[in-house]
Amino acid sequence: MLKTLTAAAAAALALTALPAAADDHMARAERLVTVVTAENPQTQLMSMVLTMQAVAKGTRVHMLLCGPAGDIALDDAPESATAGQPPRDMSPQGLLTQIVAKGATVEVCAIYLPGKGLQPEALIDGVGVAQPPAMADALLESGAAVWSF
Disulfide-capable partner of 81 in 19, 93, 111, 138 (CB 3.0 to 4.6 Å)? Predict the structure, then answer.
């Protein structure tokens, strides 16, 4: 009886260690596609913060900015994209430029600039215009994670 209880206790102890072991070996996506459409500057900034965390972990990032979020990539961006926010006085555009500098691919939607009556020269350095077939491929790539804000 004592042997059975000891074996049961050992099994229960081993089972409690499984979640921790699984976390250590959790598979990560090698590629991340971040799609940002939100108009809210706090949401835009948080999308940049989380994407930068993925870049720092070695994930290849492709970011698509559409609608109001496309304004973040404008050379003449609105104050909502450039104003620092608490707690670290960072702005969506400021962090976006760091993400670009780290090698991420950042693009605005193909219809964003024409909809604003602008040309690609209106974008900050390092930001391009997405081509729908290539963007669809990125979103459908096997193993890619897709975050949408």
Answer: 93
Average pLDDT on 4-16 reads: 42
Q: 130 to each of 9, 16, 88, 91, 101, how far by Cα in Å?
A: 57, 47, 31, 23, 18
Residues 6+ apart with CB under 8 A from 24: none
Instruction: State the amino acid at position 13 in one-letter form.
Output: L
Tell me the whole-structure pTM to 2 decimals: 0.82
The phi and psi torsions of 36 (rounded to 5 degrees) equal -120, 125
* Closest C-alpha to 31, from 131, 149, 138, 108: 138
Residue 104 has pLDDT above 50, yes or no: yes
- d(CA 65, CA 97) in angstroms, rounded, equals 13
CA–CA separation, 112 vs 129, rounded Å?
9
Mind listing the pLDDT tens digit for each residue in 64-88?
999 999 999 999 999 999 999 999 9
Task: Please name the amino acid found at residue 61.
Answer: V
Termini Cα distance of the chain: 57
Could you tell me whether strands 105-108 and 60-65 are parallel, antiparallel, or unpaired per DSSP bridges? parallel
Q: Tokens 């604003």: give the residue.
A: 116
